[in-house]
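Hi L.,

As promised, HEBP2 protein:
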Amino acid sequence: MAEESPDSAYHSHGSSLEEEAAERMDDEEQERLLSYWQSVGRGHQVDVPRDMAEPIQQLTRNNSPQERQSIPFTLIQRKEKLGDLLYEKRQYGKAKWACIKMKEKQYEQSICLGFMKLMRYICEQNSSGLYLGITIPIVTIVHTNEAQSEMARAVTVAYYLPEVLQDQPPHPFDSDIIIEEWPSTIVYSRSFRGITNEDSIMREINLLAEILESPELCLQDTFIIAGYTNPAAANRHNEIWFLQRP
């Protein structure tokens, strides 16, 4: 039997050391990211469990701007005043979304917990066993009373399936996640920054209602919050969407 040369033994041992070091760095990164999300979660009164470590790491590594796919739409109109953009009128086409209904005590709890469930689906916990890719924005459907003075607790957090998966969406392992096909919709969109909670959402709804020439053309009790940054971010980029009546 041929003996292993010292040189090949060195390379074999060296590569295993490199693999161990890489695994150790990988574990350290996972712990650091999990710890960060857990501290953010506590601020929203949400517990981030240990099994979120891997999805958080996957999402973080694949969250560069060039990796994210924007939901396609057709711009119909831009309304400006003194150089400031007041709102955009857009048309979104018929498409499939992964949706989860949440009903926590606070809106922030619902979107954080809903987003975590969708993260698991995106990060391989699906029938394809593959990482599905990030699409933006992640949207939340909210409901108010007819007077638009109070927000209901029940919300739906939704993830737009990438173009290549629209025809055959992978099946979620989590039975709480439902794949829905949404019809083509015209929305009136206005951008805002910061945290999203019951107060800020109601403020943005009232603000856009004042700006629109004909708000009665839109649904009066159903709105969408579009989030372009994850719930852990401090200065988030959001939009409020009014939905034109079918």
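The two ends are 78 Å apart (CA to CA).

Thanks again for sending the construct details.

K.
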